[in-house]
């Protein structure tokens, strides 16, 4: 096991969550504005690229600050970094809050 495993797990989870959010926003526009054409292919591809780049960046502290520690008894590797877990959790929560604040304040029914 290496440090990249934990990093790519964080990237995949983050990308999955943001992709579901993007799909939800797309469906919202499809229901709320049924006669519009929706988003163009360029916008959709840009959103997908942005989601993956943002996921790579937001999970970067996992790669930088976690250490791979070999436990001598069982020969199992462990990834540690207690302070980083709190930092990543707080940053992710702030991003989510800012994101939802923006959309809830601009899209009132």
Structural write-up:
- The protein has helices spanning 3-32, 41-58, 60-65, 82-106, and strands at residues 67-70, 77-80.
- By secondary structure, it is mainly α.
- Strands 1-2 form a two-stranded antiparallel sheet.
- Helix 1 (3-32) runs antiparallel to helix 2 (41-58).
- The longest helix is centred in the N-terminal third of the chain and has 30 residues, at 3-32.
- The protein is elongated.
* Overall outline: elongated
Strands of the biggest beta sheet: in what spatial order? 1-2
What is the H/E string? HHHEEH
In total, how many domains does the architecture comprise?
Answer: 1
Quickly list its features.
109 residues; mainly alpha; 4 helices; elongated
Q: What is shown here, in short?
A:
The chain is mostly helical and 109 residues long. Helices cover 72% and strands 7% of the residues.
Helices and strands, with pairings:
Elements lengths: L2 H30 L8 H18 L1 H6 L1 E4 L6 E4 L1 H25 L3
Antiparallel strand pairs: 1-2
Helix pairs in contact: 1-2
């Amino acid at each position: 096991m290496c440090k990249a495993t934990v990093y790519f797990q964080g990237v995949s989870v983050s990308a999955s969550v943001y992709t579901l959010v993007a799909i939800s926003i797309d469906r919202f526009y499809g229901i709320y504005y049924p006669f519009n054409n929706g988003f163009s292919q360029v916008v959709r591809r840009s959103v997908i690229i942005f989601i993956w780049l943002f996921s790579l960046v937001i999970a970067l502290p996992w790669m930088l600050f976690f250490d791979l520690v070999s436990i001598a008894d069982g020969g199992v590797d462990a990834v540690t970094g207690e302070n980083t877990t709190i930092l990543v959790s707080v940053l992710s929560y702030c991003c989510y809050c800012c994101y939802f604040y923006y959309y809830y304040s601009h899209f009132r029914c």
